[in-house]
Amino acid sequence: MGKAAAGTRDRLVRAALKTLTQHGFSGATARTIAAEARVNQALIFYHFGSVDHLLLAALDATSEDRLARYRSWLADINKFSDLVDAMDRLYKEDIVSGHITAVQEMVAGASSVPALRRQVLERMTPWVAFAREVLGRMVSGTVVEKMVSIDDLAFAAVAFYFGIETLTNLAGDRAQAQALFEAGRRLAPVVDAVLQSASWVGETA
Amino acid sequence: MGKAAAGTRDRLVRAALKTLTQHGFSGATARTIAAEARVNQALIFYHFGSVDHLLLAALDATSEDRLARYRSWLADINKFSDLVDAMDRLYKEDIVSGHITAVQEMVAGASSVPALRRQVLERMTPWVAFAREVLGRMVSGTVVEKMVSIDDLAFAAVAFYFGIETLTNLAGDRAQAQALFEAGRRLAPVVDAVLQSASWVGETA
Amino acid sequence: MGKAAAGTRDRLVRAALKTLTQHGFSGATARTIAAEARVNQALIFYHFGSVDHLLLAALDATSEDRLARYRSWLADINKFSDLVDAMDRLYKEDIVSGHITAVQEMVAGASSVPALRRQVLERMTPWVAFAREVLGRMVSGTVVEKMVSIDDLAFAAVAFYFGIETLTNLAGDRAQAQALFEAGRRLAPVVDAVLQSASWVGETA
Amino acid sequence: MGKAAAGTRDRLVRAALKTLTQHGFSGATARTIAAEARVNQALIFYHFGSVDHLLLAALDATSEDRLARYRSWLADINKFSDLVDAMDRLYKEDIVSGHITAVQEMVAGASSVPALRRQVLERMTPWVAFAREVLGRMVSGTVVEKMVSIDDLAFAAVAFYFGIETLTNLAGDRAQAQALFEAGRRLAPVVDAVLQSASWVGETA
DNA sequence: TATGAATGAGTTTTCATTCAT
DNA sequence: GATGAATGAAAACTCATTCAT
Questions:
Q1: What pLDDT is recorded for position D204?
Q2: Do chains A and C touch (3 or more CB pairs under 8 A)?
Q3: What whole-number distance in Å separates Cα of residue A97 and Cα of residue B83?
Q4: Which of D104, D120, D152 sits opposite C170 (nearest CB)?
Q5: Residues near B178 by Cβ (< 8 Å), separated by ≥ 6?
Q6: Which site from A2, A99, C136, C155 is most exposed, i.e. has the minimal number of CB atoms within 10 Å?
Q7: For the whole prediction, is pTM greater than 0.85?
Q8: Does the residue A29 lie in any domain?
Q9: Neighbours of chain A (3+ CB pairs under 8 A)
Q10: How far is CA A43 from its chain centroid?
Q11: What is the sign of the dihedral through the CA atoms of B108, B113, B117 and B119?
Q12: CA separation for the pair C141, D93 (Å, rounded)
């Protein structure tokens, strides 16, 4: 693959992402994306085979990019309050980059196109796994671990996240998502205390 | 409106719902819905003005129907464990009727069609209000009330619900949603205990 | 035909005329006209058989109405300057009533629908005949009569009229039509003089 | 633009013109035009964006073509009798090419589609300007110039032309238009004499 | 690699008209 | 006479995709 080609692929991926956030999943057509990329429509099919594949490639790109960033920021975090702080920053990055909306559009959009469901779901599982990792670290050895399976917890976290984003996108404003974040921050000490006490209980038992 | 017309409107609404669950939001075209209803395509426009309006009417129909049912079942519930039990039944009804998928498709689908966002969101607010009512009853006078605003709680509940449904729809199986339900059931006594103890604190103060 | 029916027919004819002036020939659909008349669409077909027939009936109505008025005003006119004065008033009435635009829309519109051509043309011939009558009176016995056939003159007059109206309608303002009227008024004495001198010549020869 | 594309555009423009003359403005649909051009319907939108744009492009094409021809033929003409001779030939060309009917259909048709009015009118102004130029040359320095503004004269000429064409198209035969031409030819010497004498007056004054 | 042109199936919507009541 | 419902054909336009160059 020559440089030009890589450049074009890149332009298309970026354009797909932008189109997804600006026109929604159903507005992300070959024409619109190619126009955004200032590139010939046919190149989408040349490089990606189909619009769906480009969209998935775009999802891959953001997803990997962001997952790496999430990994590095959340690597050493063990307390819920630290988690909330870090998530706050990461979330803000997601907003600024616009990638959060693109991903939400893909997830919601894919649910309306049976053919895309499986492939989009596959791209969500790394996130669930990552959530399991982070949450596992946080609740392992606490009583919480005995009450809820970490799998459930991870699934719930990701589901919660997409639910918030879906409603946020519908409403067109982030006020309520933001309010939830602040509620999380306020609750953080309590959660940490519970986890703390819980681990005592665990140890004692 | 004559009987025939009411019948046709009904057929169309039901067909829209069914098409939404079977072909997804983006497969819910005038043609598909009319075929499902075994009715002339043009009748969609005669009775509803546009496909979008039919879809919204369908959403209205289910939404009102289900909200009434939720109201009557959750009217006298004050304990979390009772809530989980009742929700379990209601949720199973939702699944059997297929309405749950239709609503999820509309909510997710609308997010990809800017023109629909506001109108679908409007139809979600009664649910948020209802959640506020039920959760408010459950939490009022407890320490939880002091830690999280009931508005946030209600929004979070609805968001959580749609998040679960979106991932469930992507995955094409309800296993994880079901697992969460059971986790909820297991947690219920703890939650009730917390709410209980919390209200003591409230009373003591 | 009962009173109600006559009333409905009338409403429809008036609505057709109004729709023609407000939405143009191609905007004069059964739906639009019925809406304007606040009447059921099907009544158009009940009373007139087809939209085209309603449109023709409307053309008939205005045409007869106006032709009668033109006849009475131009009955005793022999001088071109008097003709210009009278026409000025009649034309202003045509504008105010909006009928002029309706007729222009019918004539122009019919030219784009082969099936209507003959029937609209038939409705124009009384006007050509009337023009022949008036102009005949004015030029008979003058040299003009020897130079141009009155048939040509009448046809030219009506053609000129519709040409002006077509361009006026395109432009959306009557300024140039008005300017032509004033030019006509300024020329009138000259024309009258020519007709006068011409008749001398005619008598002398 | 490649050769193939130019060819297709050309075919479409020619087909639009032909369809306009054969089926009238309201029969000039995407389907009909594409069929006439033996070309895929979608190409109309690919190349012209909309049916209206194709129709306008067709109008442009004929109009520019014919205007150039009119310009070259009428460049050195100063006498009315010469004008009539030249116009006779040009008009016959217009008839043979069929372009005259197409233009008339566009002008009349546009009057029924508010959205087209302005754009068609714009395409008529070069003709009015050209008429002003030719008539100005003919009339300047004569008494006619003092009696009628050249703007009025030019507008009148074009209006007259379209009026004749509209009635001709309605009637489906050119007999009366032809008769008018011959009347013009018979009147030409008189008109030239008037213009002549008029210029004496002008010089004397 | 890239491009402009082309394709055919699909979309929503509107049309005139008919029909049963 | 009048109405609401229904119909089938047709409208303009967009879609993802392919093809020749």
A1: 44
A2: no
A3: 40
A4: D120
A5: none
A6: A2
A7: yes
A8: no
A9: B
A10: 28
A11: negative
A12: 38
pLDDT of C130-177, one tens digit each?
A: 999 999 999 988 888 888 999 999 999 999 999 999 999 999 999 999
C17 located within any domain: no
Distance from CA of B120 to the nearest CA of A (A): 8
Domain count, chain B: 1
Among A112, A172, A190, the residue with its CB nearest the CB of B26 is A112
Q: Is A190 near strand E, with its CB below 7 A from some atom of it?
A: no
Kindly state the average pLDDT of the residues D140-145: 86
Amino acid at B157: A
Chain B residues 29-68 with Cβ under 7 Å of strand F are: 39-43, 46-47
Scanning residues 15 through 44 of protein chain A, those with a beta carbon under 7 Å from any atom of strand F turn out to be 28-32, 41-42, 44
User: What residue type is D10 in one-letter code?
Assistant: D
Q: Do chains D and C touch (3 or more CB pairs under 8 A)?
A: yes
> Amino acid letter at D66?
R
Closest residue in B to A110 (Cα–Cα): B170
The reply to whether the CB atom of residue D47 sits less than 7 A from any atom in nucleic acid chain E is: yes
Is residue C12 in some structural domain?
Answer: no
Report pLDDT for B145.
87
Q: CA-CA distance, C153 to C138, in Å (whole number)? A: 11
* Token pair of A30 as six digits: 């070959």
Residues B1, C159: Cα–Cα separation, whole Å:
51
Residues D160-179: what's their mean pLDDT?
A: 95
Contact by Cβ (8 Å): B63, B123: yes
Q: Report the C-alpha gap between A34 and A51 in whole angstroms.
A: 10
C202 — pLDDT class (breaks 50, 70, 90): very low
- pLDDT of residue B158 exceeding 50, the answer is yes
Q: What is the chain A residue with the closest CA to B26?
A: A112
Residues 6+ apart with CB under 8 A from C167: C176, D121, D124, D155, D158, D159, D162
Q: Do the chains contact at A170 and B111, CB–CB below 8 Å?
A: yes
Q: Helices A114-139 and A99-111 meet at what angle, rounded to 10?
A: 120
Distance CA D169, CA D23 (A): 12
Residue range(s) defining the domain that contains residue B131: 52-197
* A149 conformational bin, left if phi > 0, alpha if psi -120 to 50, beta if neither: beta
C contacts of D167 (beta carbons < 8 Å): 121, 124, 155, 158-159, 162
Nearest-angstrom CA–CA distance, B49 and B57: 11
d(CA D58, CA D109): 14
Between residue 3 and residue 32 of chain D, the positions with Cβ below 7 Å from nucleic chain F are 29-32
Q: Is residue C138 part of a domain?
A: yes
Q: Using the CB atom, is residue D1 less than 7 Å from strand E?
A: yes
Reading phi first (left if > 0) and then psi (alpha if -120 to 50, else beta), residue D98 is in: left
Residues 131-150 of C with CB under 8 A from D: 147-149
Integer angstrom CA distances of residue A182 from A4, A186, B131: 46, 6, 20
pLDDT score of C200: 52
pLDDT band with cut points at 50, 70 and 90 for residue D98: confident
Contact A80, A131 (CB under 8 A): no
